[in-house]
Structure formats: C-alpha cells, structure tokens
Automatic annotation (TrEMBL):
<feature type="binding site">
    <location>
        <position position="781"/>
    </location>
    <ligand>
        <name>ATP</name>
    </ligand>
</feature>
<protein>
    <recommendedName>
        <fullName>Phospholipid-transporting ATPase</fullName>
        <ecNumber>7.6.2.1</ecNumber>
    </recommendedName>
</protein>
<dbReference type="GO" id="GO:0005789">
    <property type="term" value="C:endoplasmic reticulum membrane"/>
</dbReference>
<dbReference type="InterPro" id="IPR059000">
    <property type="entry name" value="ATPase_P-type_domA"/>
</dbReference>
<feature type="binding site">
    <location>
        <position position="558"/>
    </location>
    <ligand>
        <name>ATP</name>
    </ligand>
</feature>
<keyword id="KW-0256">Endoplasmic reticulum</keyword>
<dbReference type="InterPro" id="IPR023299">
    <property type="entry name" value="ATPase_P-typ_cyto_dom_N"/>
</dbReference>
<feature type="binding site">
    <location>
        <position position="589"/>
    </location>
    <ligand>
        <name>ATP</name>
    </ligand>
</feature>
<feature type="transmembrane region" description="Helical">
    <location>
        <begin position="332"/>
        <end position="351"/>
    </location>
</feature>
<keyword id="KW-0067">ATP-binding</keyword>
<feature type="binding site">
    <location>
        <position position="398"/>
    </location>
    <ligand>
        <name>ATP</name>
    </ligand>
</feature>
<feature type="transmembrane region" description="Helical">
    <location>
        <begin position="1046"/>
        <end position="1071"/>
    </location>
</feature>
<dbReference type="Pfam" id="PF16209">
    <property type="entry name" value="PhoLip_ATPase_N"/>
</dbReference>
<keyword id="KW-0472">Membrane</keyword>
<feature type="binding site">
    <location>
        <position position="812"/>
    </location>
    <ligand>
        <name>Mg(2+)</name>
    </ligand>
</feature>
<keyword id="KW-0967">Endosome</keyword>
<feature type="binding site">
    <location>
        <position position="812"/>
    </location>
    <ligand>
        <name>ATP</name>
    </ligand>
</feature>
Amino acid sequence: MDFSRLRRIITRYCVGEENWVGNRTVHIGHKEPPSCAEAYMPQDYPDNRIVSSKYTFWNFIPKNLFEQFRRIANFYFLVIFLIQVSFLFTFEASGYEDWLRHKADCSLNECPVDVVEQGKVVRTQSHKLRVGDIVMVREDETFPCDLILLSSSRYDGTCFVTTTSLDGESSHKTYYAVPDTMAFRTEQEVDSLHATIECEQPQPDLYKFVGRVDIYKDKQEPVVRTLGAENLLLRGATLKNTGHIYAVAVYTGMETKMALNYQSKSQKRSAVEKSMNAFLVVYLCILISKALINTVLKYAWQWSPDRDEPWYNHRTEIERQRHMVIRAFTDFLAFMVLFNYIIPVSMYVTVEMQKFLGSYFIAWDEEMFDEELGQGAQVNTSDLNEELGQVEYVFTDKTGTLTENNMEFIECCVDGNVYIPHAICNGQILSAASSIDMIDSSPGGYRRVNLFFRALCLCHTVQVKEEETVESIKRGIHQGKSTSFYISSSPDEVALVEGMKRLGYTYLRLKDNYMEILNKDDEIERFELLHVLNFDSVRRRMSVIVRSSSGEYLLFCKGADSSIFPRVVSGKVEQVKARVEQNAVEGLRTLCVAYRRLSESEYLEASHRLTEAKIALQDREQRLAQTYDIIEREFVLLGATAVEDRLQEKAADTIESLHKAGMKVWVLTGDKMETAAATCYASKLFRRSTQILELTKKRTEEQSLHDVLFDLNRTVLRQRSISGYGLSRCLSVDCLDFGLIIDGATLSGVLKPSQDSAGHGNYREIFLEICRNCSAVLCCRMAPLQKAQIVKLIKSSKEHPITLAIGDGANDVSMILEAHVGIGIMGKEGRQAARNSDYAIPKFKHLKKMLLVHGHYYYIRIAELVQYFFYKNVCFIFPQFLYQFFCGFSQQPLYDTAYLTLYNISFTSLPILLYSLVEQHITMETLKREPSLYRDIAKNALLRWPAFLYWTCLGVFDAVIFFFGAYFLFDNTTFTSNGQMFGNWTFGTLVFTVLVFTVTLKLALDTHHWTWINHFVIWGSLLFYVIFSLLWGGIIWPFLNYQRMYYVFMQMLSSGPAWLSIILLITVSLLPDVIKKVLCRAVCPTATEVFTKTINTFSFFPSLITFFHSPVPYCGALHHLHAFSVLQQNEFLIGPQRRGRSRKRR
C-alpha cells in the first residue's frame, strides 16, 4: 500500500513547516536514475491545478454564514427567525462571485500546453502537468508552471521574459539555460536528456531559488550544474523576443511561486459599519429591556385576580394549568416580537443599496477620466465608500505614483564637464546651450569622454529588438528611423543607452557574445563580453568585463554614488560629486561611472574566482558577493549621469490639499534618499521651512539607535511645548514643522524583535511618537514587505487611524492590501496594483477629488442614513411601548398590521435612500477649493456616541410627544357630529400619521441640495401614505378576516380637532431640533457652517449696495431681482434654508 501521500500530509501539516521545507528531487521526463545513483524513491507532487476560489460546494454555506454572522444584526435576524433576512443579498452575491472564480479557474486549468513525450510534442491541458514534465513554450505564451530552462531557440541559450503579472515590471528580463543542455534544438534531443534536479521546497520568494541538476552521460559520474533564480521561469510570466524554449516543470499548481504569493483579499470593514454594530448592540439591549420590563410589569399588574382573569376574558383549563415560568417566557417572546421593529432591519438593505448605487458616481465622474489611457476610475469594492471620508494617513509610492515613471536622459558629467543631448553633440556647442561648459579639449580628456560614452554603451543588460512594434517596450531613436527598439529590465538603462545614441554613440546589438557599438565617426566597434556582474540592491552597482579589438581587458562599472566613490582611486571626484549632489537636489536619478584596466593575469584570476563562485553548491550568493567585492575596486572615475522621472501633473497640488485636509502623507520608496527628498520638496510634501529629521543608517553608525531615537523625540517634544499648539493648527508657511526621513535599514532596527520586549516596545512607541509630531515622513530604500509593515504599524497604534495606501506597481500590492483603503494607479508597471486595490484611478491627481469630494459626500450621506434609521425606529416603537401601560400589558399593537409592515418598506424608505445618494451639503467646487472642510468629518465625527445619543433622545422625545400629545388632547372628548368617540385604532392611526409626517419633514429640514427628484420622493411618500390609508380604510377587502381599519382614517380626517392636533404635534416635535441647530450654528459652528455663512455674506452685500444705488429704481429692482435669482443658483448659495435667510435680508 502506498503511504507516500499520507506521509507528505503528516510531514507538511503536523511536523511543522521548518521540517517540511527541505529538498525535492525532480526526475526529468520521469526517468529513473541509473543504478549508480542514489536509491530511487518515487514522490507524489500535486498536479498543476490552480484554485483561487474561496469556497467549495461543501463549505460554502457554513463558511459564508460565518462571514455573515460577523454582523451582529444578521445573527439577531437568524435567532429570532424573522422572515426578513437582510444578508440574503450579500449571501447570494458571495456565491455568485465565487462561482465566477470557479469559472476563471476552469478556464485557466484547461489552457492548452505543449509537452514533450517520447520525442514528440503532445498537446495537453494545463492541469494535467506533473513535476518532471518537459514543456515547450512559444513566443508570447505564458508559462504554465514554474520551469527550469533547458534550451531556447537563441544560440546563446538565453530567453527574454516579462513578469508584469508577477511584480508589475513590464521590462524584459534575461534568463539562462543550463550550459550542458543549451545546445538542444529538437524534441528528440531534449527527450534523450537523462538528468535529475534537486532543489528547495516551494517558497514564495520570487527572486530566490537554489538547486542543482545532475546530468548522467554514458554511465559516468553525473555532471553537476548549479541552478539559481536566473534559470527559473515563473508561472504567469510571458516569453518575449524568443522563438521557443524547452523547460522542465519543478513546481506545479498551488506550489508555484505565483500561487504561494497569492494573497486572498480579506474583507475590510469600515468605521461606519463598526459603529453600526456598536449601536445595534445598544438597541438590542433596549429591546430586551423593554420586553423584560413589560413582562415583569404585566405580572405585577395581574397580581390581583380581577385583573389576572377579568369577566370578559376567562382562561381555558389548559392556560390555567400552564406553569408560570412558561407563561412568562412566552410573554417575553411575545413582547420581543412586538418591539422587534426597533431593530432597523431594512437599514442594512438600504445601506447595501446605497453603497452599490453610490459607487457608480465615482465611475461616472468625467473629471476622473484620463484621455491618454482612455479609462476612468474603477470601484473594485463598494463597502468602503464612506471610508474615503475618514482617511488620516496616506501612504504613497514615489516612482510611477508621484512621478510619471517615464525615464528621460537629461545630462552626463565627465570630469566636471556637462554634456546634454542636442545641446553639446560631437564637440560642437549649439546655440541653445551657451551656458554649458566646454568639452575638455586635452588629449587625455577627449579619451576619457569617449571611454565614458563607451562604458554606458557596454555596461548594461539592454537587448535590441528589430521590429516596428513591440508591446510594452520603449522604442529607440536611430536617425529618425523607427527600426530598432531597446528592451531591458531597467527603464534607467534604456534611458541611458538612448541618451548615448543622441550623443553620438549607438549600441547596435549583442551577437555571438560580441557587443557592437556605432561611434560618432560612424565606425562599428566590437567588444567581446566576458563576464556580467549583475546589479543587486546590496551592492547597488553592476559591472561588465569586456575585451576590446586590440586585446585590452576593461572592467566598466556603474552604480549609486555611495557605492562607487569609496572604490575610486583617481579621477576628478570632487567635481563629479558636486554635480551629483546638485542633480540629486533637483530630483534627478543619478549614477556614477568608473572603469579599471585589467592585465591578462588579473583577468584570469577574476574569471577563475567568478566561475568558482557561480558553481558553488553552498552559500553561492555570499561567495559571489565576496568575489564581486574583490574585483570591483581601484576604479578610475569617469563621470556621472542624470535621468529624470518627472513629477505627475498636479501631484504637488494634491499633496498640499491633503495636508490642508488634516491628513499625514508618507512617501514609501526604494529610491536613494537624496532623489526621494528632492521629489518630496518638488511635490510640496516638504516645505522650505520644514526642519528635516534624519533617522538613517549613516546616523545610527555614529550613534546608537537608542540615542538617535531619544534625541529626535526630545527635539520634537521641545518644539511642541515651545510652540504651544499641535500640528493640526500648523498650516501656515511660517509655522515650524518637522519632516522625518528614515531608510529601510534603520526601520528594520526599529521593528526588529529583541529579547528585551520592553525595549522593543519602547522603540516602536518612540518612533510612533516622533512620527505623530511630523507633518510628513519619507521612507527610502524600502522593500515591499517593509511598506506593508509601516502601514500595519500605524494601523495598530493606539489611535487606530484610518490609513490609505496608493501605488502603481506589484511591489505596492502588499501595502495596498494592508491599508484600510487601497488605491491602485493604472500606471506603466502593469495592472497588479489596480487589480488588488479597492479603487483604481488613472492618475495621482484624481486622489484629491476622490477623498475631498466623493469621500466627504459618502460619509455625510451614510452617517445621516444610519442615525436617521435609528431615530425613526425609536419614534415608531416607543409609542408602542408606552401604549402597553394603558392596555394592561396585553401585547395589543398600537398600529395596524399594514402600517407595521409598510412603515420601513414604503412610507419612509425612499426619501432617506435618495438623500443618501444625492445630498450635497456644500458644493463640489467649494470642497475642492477648501480642503480644510474635510476636518469636520474626521475621526468618525458624525457617528460618535454623543451624536448617537442625541438622535436617540430626539426620537424618544418625539415619540413621547406623539403619544401623550394625542392622549391628552383627545381625553374624554367627542370628535364627530354624531357623538362617536375615537377608538384605539383611530388613536393609533393618529399617532402613526403624526409619526410619518414628522420623520419625513425632519429629513426635509436636513436636506440642503434640492432637486426635482427630492421633491417628488419626499412629498410623494407623504401623498402615498395618505392615498394608501384612504384606500385601506375605505374599501371592504374580501381577503381579510377583519375590517378593523374600515373608515378609521376618513373618520379621523373628518374631525377638525384632529387636523389641528396633527399640525400642532408635528410642529412641537420638530421645534427642538430646529432650535438646537440654530443655537449650535450661533455658538459653536463647524468650519463648513462658518465658511458657508461667510460666502453667503460676501455674495449678498455687493448686490444689496448696487440695488440701493441703482439710478432707475423700478428697472434696477427688476435687474437685481434677476441677478439675485442667478446668485441663488451660485455654488455658494446651497439649500433652501440659506436661500431663505438671504431673502429675509433683502
């Protein structure tokens, strides 16, 4: 019996991951190794099936119910077995969405794949692939699983790949075949391969892979070759600029790196929804309290026998024998059902509708449509619309988000002399460059200039594509002819090579391991490419070793200034360094270029070291790093380059507006500190008056991290105590504020767990305290994981602020998923960020309107919706509670069944739904012009407990007015001409009529933005209630067993005192809210109210002065009446209340 599967499951899930992560052995073509090899143990690997869906047929109902019952309301609805289940819509939507995922999975798993079997190419389906299968992939096809490259159609054994769907980079990357198999050209040759691959177990790091391949030849000892990340083709990547490749599958299905990196988006919950849950708990307690109080009072009132069993209501024998506890519990449940309408069941349905319909306003916004991309804003989730109005921290990427991610070569500096394309070309100074320095005309200087240009033409990984159109590749420029295209994994390299072309040195191609360049004299120079020392983020440089046609060995190196200058032994260092610093301050991306001449012995030694390091089985990366460090030294400095990544349109205005709105903006980037800081100044993240605090590796090398943190903390606290006010008031340019710059290495020290937990906590708290007192923070040299850690750190701080993350690349996905609100930009680094975000926008500038306008409106609307629903349900049910004191606690309803059913469904639902969709308490232009108005709604201001208690108390007050007003006004009074008195149904109908009119007029008083549809819905709802009541009580309905409401409504309306009572009670009920609003606006107005009042004043007085100075009073009056009507439509005069005040002033 085969226990391999059971053993694998136990090892993986029971023993622990540290024991599971070992090695795997892959037999290429599923061939057993020869007898001389180790013992053959067949292993069971998963198939190539991909599963991205959340549910299965078996777990959908329990798992989705668990998600739904995280809402207390849904759990309550299930417990009391109500027919109304507000989560049904969400339940079905989740199922439908997961069904779509299943369809997408099936479509992906059934994609055709070419597999080499018995020397032939066989077409099969993707999910049938197994580890060890040899796969053939053609150009522009996507890799079906993780593959080790065996050979390609290119004679050098390389292939070019785009990994847009993995890391967002649209540029081409170069991968290399195994040296012993790179010569295979046919299916028969590949199928004859007898080899075994040993590699690490699956792990999610896209850039790390360690393995080896044992190639068996004629019963000899196997040839061992090492495998690294440069040999691994990842699932989801696309083959480019290569005819076809042969590769072997090593990771399949859910064990591929793409699947391991798949992070299912957790369901984010807004602060409004959390407030709704908290308020609902209070109302559940109120409901239980009401039922409990009525149950106790009922039995206290029925303690005497004449009340317990009156003469008109004798009990049956069964009722007398029932136990008192059972009777009490039954009565308690009856009261729960009677008062359950206090729980706003329909509120959750209305909120879902409001979010779903409201999200279309973002997609329909024409101002957020980008003509260049041909796309507008996208809403990937509508659950967080109101959260856009609560953002306190904005975390933004730099490249591609604040900047355009369109690299352009600006200049180069050689020995202190500056060269600009089309300004100084081939030694001739053009008229447009009179201020540029002259070229060094000395023979040595001329040679260094030519050597510098050759270095940039040779020290790169750029490939040339000879086609008219290439997808996602920046096109080259060659004498006005669009015949060749440069492709590279780095857009900076493409910009540098194109810059050299404009300066007269053109990189042509890499052919047969020779690099060809066309110099300024139109002569082709050939250099043999011997070794490439690839770029990495630790060294921050790359190098190539080439041999010229004269046999001279040259080592060219380019990299960051901090990694080049310490290795330079000669050259004009000071002049170049000054130019680099100047360019960095201007926001340009800078690189330094150096070279070294190698003797033949030095080259042979370097080549031997490189070869040994590359084939090392253990610690290969460390040995390569040591070898690079030995070779890359004793440089001669040639010069530096400057590449510009321009700031996006209106990026500075957007950041300035976010600052004024009270948000703190953090820039998280992988760029160097100087370049990132210059971008921050250009984008107005830092002002010239900002005092910069540095928390960088350079400073922590001079002092301990502990001392640096405490020094910075003392600095910000001292300044805050001197200034006497917080950061929120520091809006003027003259106010001293702080900006913090921190790098990734220092952040790791701050967040690094230590044995001293107290010290670890103190570091975090001190760092957070410093950040709280800084207006802006720049985090440079950040890894993608560190971006997410920063967001999580702020989220989990004691203030629990609402965070927003925005980026355009796959390296920003982690922080986008971590933040409360994630926004992706449809940029040039793929659509990974846009697909994983909650919202997607074309440009960074659109963030301003999304937050300051849409977010503001959404929060105002939904806050009013939530409070209004609780208010109107209190008004609805509290009279029912009071009525029990007058009916012997008999569970007699005050309202008719039809009114109970239709109150939340028909009579009062549409006005608040429309209000929550179209209300504008202030105009869009005003919100964009005055970002500080965003502060009025910050920190969930409209859904705090004081506001909730006010609405609840207002509902209780109105309910008391409804009930006791009707009770005392009609006590012992006849109302009809025949002397007939009102009965209990007439009394209940009167209370209900006052209730419907009051709650509807309350919403009308809160409405500022009136349109024809507002009038239609609000007054139409009241008219519908009247018409329904007339029909419901004016017709004998044959399907009803009772006709208790027959003629009740018409009888009530036929009474003059009833009309007077209705008007009086409505007025008294609305009066306290009106008085409260007037007093609040006079005593403690909000910033919005103050601004609107000021605008109204300035808009009114000029027309008033002109009116009194008009030479023809009658005509002038008509003219100014017309002008005033135009002013009423102005953006500053909004709402009927403000227009009414203006008329009174006239």
